[in-house]
Amino acid sequence: MAKKETFIKGTLIIAAATLVARLLGVFQRVPLEHMLGPVGNAAFATSQNVYLLILAVATAGIPSTLSKMVSEKYALNKVREAERIYYAALLFGLVSGIVVTVLLIVFAPWYANLAGQPEAAPAIRALAPALLLFPLLAMMRGYTQGRNMMQASGISQIVEQILRVVTAIALALILVNSGASQGYAAAGASFGGVFGSIGAFVVMVYYLRKLRKADREAGLRARSMGGQVVPLRDIFASIFTLSVPIVISMLAVPAVNMIDSTLTIPLLTPSLGEAQATYLYGILGQRGQSIAGIPPILAIALSTSLIPVISSAYAKRDMPHLQRQITLAMRISVLSGMPLVLALSVGAFSVNGFIFSTMDGASIISMQTLATIFQISMMTSSSILIGLGKPYIAMISVSAGIILKLVMSLVLVQFLGIYGIIAATMIAFFVITYLNLRVLKKVVKFSVIGKRWPGFILATLMAGGTGYAVEYIGQQIALHTPVPDKLGLFFTAAFVSITVLVLFVVGLVIFRVIRGEELSGYPKAVQKLLRPLMRLQPSRASK
Fold first, then answer.
1. d(Cα 165, Cα 492) in Å, to the nearest integer?
2. Cα distance between residue 300 and residue 297, in whole Å
3. Distances (CA, A) of 166 to 40, 86, 199, 440, 534
4. Cα 185 from Cα 119, distance rounded (Å)
């Protein structure tokens, strides 16, 4: 085949773009955390969570549905239907963008008061204009992903984040220096999202024109002009039949963050006071969410690029290929996510102290990051179910998890304070993952690690335990030597990360989670990395 269908290349493109975008997002929050103050940090975090939840609802899961449907139609050579589906999605994006922008402007003060953060209303309203373009952007990205043109989404994400970061920091700095309140400084930072949406839109238009030119040269445009026109009402019926369960299945993270934004300050205020509750939520929402957002990067990439490939394989009933892709996806998500989770969890004190304005909240960040291992497996397994045409299963799992998160937050906060809210998130992600995998294994037989879980656990304990020891020693050196604290904390965080990553990979080899006879199934770059380590592996028959 001229173009070998594989999600690995698409995953790497989206992963690289998501990594850059995520790092830019973290970079954005660092100066903002220093500038905005406790009230401004809480307001900015709340505006971002509201925006992400509304954006997910506004697009109604259509980008993933669009990616899936377009991929299937092109696999079956139904170009005309694919183009009509894309047109219908753009129409919906335009209308939904106008509606949610108006609603956000009108109801922002009401929600801000409900969450105990009246100062957050300007920041929420400042993001509203971005919602005029982002639903359209989402449809464009879904279409290009369905056409396996992953670089369009990737580059648009990077351009969006660059413009967002530059304008957010610049506007916040201008407002802070002019004496504006923390709430309005946060609004200036939020408005950076509007500039980001414009830049991303320009990039997507460029790539779509490039794709159209390639289609004309291949004769696809001519084929798309013939045949019977599918009525829009039939397309919308098909789209929404799929997209309603998809949007609910993809609401897990935005909904969890929204619950935190809404409940944290009201629940903590009676015991801690409003000022301390706001300060702690600022750490949870501004620092914790940015650091905890790093480990799931590859899972986000997998979730994006996995759906069209699995949908296409399932449409062709290519079950061996489907089984291999699902196994590889789950294995990559777990094996790549765990070392990042460990490194950032055990090194949270140094990372927090080096990046942010104070050393407060390291334990909050550590616990939040630890919870993301279940978020990673949840996102990947939900995307597999969607690709298999079973979004209702993922919808039920996520709905149960969100309800559990809400109930457990209300209960556990009484005993554990803010750690109860984080524990509720961890429980919710774990339950969603469990429910997804329980059903998925009945549909498609696959094995992530098989009977090698003891070795995986030993590798995790070895890497995490050693990393924690290095972190403790580094803390003592950084805090009790003439070397500036920030520099000492930087070196500690770096040593912890390197130690955890190296020992985790070595542990996977020593404890035979990764085996020499299986290396040929991994990408060449990974083979190159692992082959020298195989000398460490005991020589015995594979189980």
1. 27
2. 5
3. 18, 32, 12, 43, 45
4. 10
Lookup: tokens for 289: 């969410």
Nearest residue to 399 (alpha-carbon basis) of 250, 299, 293, 263: 250
Separation of alpha carbons 49 and 411, rounded Å? 23
pTM listed for this prediction:
0.78
CB atoms within 10 A of CB 273: 11
* Cα–Cα distances in angstroms (integers) from residue 78 to residues 85, 89, 221, 351, 395, in the given order: 11, 17, 12, 51, 29
Distance CA 519, CA 267 (A): 51
Place of tokens 């929404």: 240
DSSP annotation string for 371-417: THHHHHHHHHHHHHHHHTT-HHHHHHHHHHHHHHHHHHHHHHHHHHT
Burial per residue of 518-537, b for 16 or more beta-carbon CB atoms within 10 angstroms, e otherwise: eeeebeeeeeeebeebeeeb
Residue-wise pLDDT tens digits, 347-359: 888 888 888 877 8
Confidence of residue 428 (pLDDT cuts 50, 70, 90): very high
pLDDT digits 0-9 by tens, 116-154: 888 889 999 998 888 888 888 888 888 887 777 777 877
Query: What is the overall mean pLDDT for the chain?
Result: 81
Q: Which residue has the tokens 């043109």?
A: 149
CA 175 to chain centre: 30
> Residues near 484 by Cβ (< 8 Å), separated by ≥ 6?
none
- pLDDT tens profile 263-292: 999 999 998 998 899 989 888 988 888 888
